[in-house]
Structures are given as structure tokens and as C-alpha cells.
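User: Here's a structure from my thesis project, written as C-alpha cells. My advisor, Dr. K., wants to see whether a designed sequence matches the one we expressed. Can you design one independently, without my sequence as a hint?
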């Protein structure tokens, strides 16, 4: 039986290289989505009184910007801006570079939400398990 998340992966219990805990993950998600909303509002505008049929694609603009931020920054700086601000990195289990396709698949699964909230004993969401990555403390 594992005594802490990441033990069976050979990761430390705390500090750099340990599994990023839920509080940091939620904080990073809030930072990323707030940034995406601000950027989307600046470029696409915001009409709080528009009906979904009137708003068109602008209602999805924050989610699209969020996806672009994830896909752009995970392979380049090792995580989204929220991850990096809160001291986390997305890494492959084998230590190699995450590449270009993994952030795309990870982001698509993250947007669906369900894979991100179902975890294993190591607190790896299904979106990370599917592509062989892990969110660790930097």
C-alpha cells in the first residue's frame, strides 16, 4: 500500500519533484482561466446581457484562449502560466520532453473536465494518465 501520492512512481513525499497537490492544481486552474477570460474579453469583447444565440463564438472565447495557453506553454516552459506561478511542471514519467502532441491531447481532455477530476492513487488525473505525464512541484 502506498503511504503518499507518487510513492510507487519513486517520487519524494514533498518538495521539488513530488506530486503537485489538489490546492495548487485548483489555484493554477483559477489563474489560467482568469488570464484566459481577461485576454478573451480584451480581444473578443464581453456582453453580459447577450443570449447564448446572440453571443456566437464569443461565449467560448475564454475556453479557446485557455486551450491555446495550455497547448503553447506546456511544451515551451513546462507548464501553463498558472502551473509555473504556483511552482509546478508537467513532466513525462520517463523524464523526456513532453513534445507537441501530448499538450494538445491533455488540453482536450482537460476541457472535457471529467478526466481531470478522476484520479488514481498517485493523484494523476485520467488526462495525465492517458498521455503518460505527471504534474509535479518544481
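Assistant: Designed independently from the structure alone:
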Amino acid at each position: 500500500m502506498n503511504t503518499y501520492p507518487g510513492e510507487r512512481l519513486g517520487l519524494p513525499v514533498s518538495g521539488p519533484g513530488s506530486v503537485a497537490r489538489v490546492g495548487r492544481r485548483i489555484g493554477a486552474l483559477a489563474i489560467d482561466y482568469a488570464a484566459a477570460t481577461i485576454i478573451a474579453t480584451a480581444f473578443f469583447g464581453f456582453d453580459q446581457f447577450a443570449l447564448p444565440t446572440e453571443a456566437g463564438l464569443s461565449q467560448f472565447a475564454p475556453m479557446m484562449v485557455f486551450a491555446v495557453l495550455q497547448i503553447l506553454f506546456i511544451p515551451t516552459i513546462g507548464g501553463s502560466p498558472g502551473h509555473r506561478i504556483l511552482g509546478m511542471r508537467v513532466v513525462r514519467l520517463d523524464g523526456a520532453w513532453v513534445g507537441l502532441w501530448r499538450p494538445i491531447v491533455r488540453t482536450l481532455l482537460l476541457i472535457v473536465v471529467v478526466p481531470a477530476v478522476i484520479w488514481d492513487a498517485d493523484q494523476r488525473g485520467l488526462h495525465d494518465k492517458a498521455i503518460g505525464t505527471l504534474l509535479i512541484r518544481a
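When you compare it with your expressed construct, this may help: The first strand starts at residue 88 and ends at 92.
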